[in-house]
């Protein structure tokens, strides 16, 4: 599963169009910093697409929750917002691309992350461990 966190319908529609033949379900989530951690924990996506034009508290919550869920994060935003691009990389985004490059970069990046085997969930220690 792929999760998209974006606030603009046009971005959602563009991403849906780009990924229509990738072979994975795409679910768009509202950019809600409070709800995103629980949603990502429940969904366990393989990839999270993060639009960096969402508020900073949403970006931070989403990156932390995606990492906790073991998901790769592909963050994208306007090339003029270098601070948000750098912050996403610093906070652990797997890939960061300018929104203008999304058309040619998104499908190969998503395919790369979907091709990786998912990490097994952390298992609690068994008896005698």
Please characterize this protein's 3D structure.
With 129 residues, the protein is of the alpha/beta class. It has one domain (2-115): 3-Layer(aba) Sandwich (Rossmann fold), CATH 3.40.50.2300. It is 42% helix and 18% strand. The chain is built from 5 helices and 5 strands. The protein has helices spanning 9-18, 36-43, 56-68, 82-90, 102-115, and strands at residues 2-5, 26-29, 47-51, 72-77, 95-98. A 5-stranded parallel sheet has the order 2-1-3-4-5, with helices on both faces. Helix 2 (36-43) packs parallel to helix 3 (56-68). The chain is globular, with a radius of gyration of 15 Å. 33% of the residues are buried. Mean pLDDT is 88; it is low at 121-126.
What key attributes describe this structure?
129 residues; alpha/beta; Rossmann fold; five-stranded parallel β-sheet; 5 helices
Rg, Cα atoms, Å = 15 Å
Q: How many strands?
A: 5
Mean pLDDT over all positions = 88
The CATH homologous superfamily corresponds to Response regulator
Which geometry do the CA atoms define? globular
- The CATH topology turns out to be Rossmann fold
Name of the level-1 CATH class? Alpha Beta
- The percent of residues in helical segments reads 40-55%
CATH architecture: 3-Layer(aba) Sandwich
Uncertain stretches of 5 or more adjacent residues:
121-126
Q: What is the domain total for the residues?
A: 1
Order of strands across the widest beta sheet? 2-1-3-4-5
Largest sheet report:
5 strands, parallel
N-C termini distance: 33 Å
How many helical elements? Answer: 5
């Amino acid at each position: 599963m792929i999760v998209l966190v974006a606030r603009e319908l046009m971005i959602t529609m563009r991403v849906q169009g780009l990924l229509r033949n990738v072979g994975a379900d795409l679910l768009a989530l509202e950019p809600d910093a409070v709800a995103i951690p629980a949603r990502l924990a429940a969904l366990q996506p393989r990839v999270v697409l993060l639009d960096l034009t969402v508020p900073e508290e949403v970006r931070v919550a989403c990156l932390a929750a995606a990492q906790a869920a073991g998901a790769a994060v592909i963050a994208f935003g306007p090339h003029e917002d270098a601070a948000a691009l750098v912050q996403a990389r610093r906070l652990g985004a797997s890939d960061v691309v300018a929104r203008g490059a999304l058309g040619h970069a998104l499908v190969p990046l998503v395919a790369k992350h979907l091709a990786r085997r998912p990490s097994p969930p952390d298992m609690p220690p068994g008896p005698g461990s």
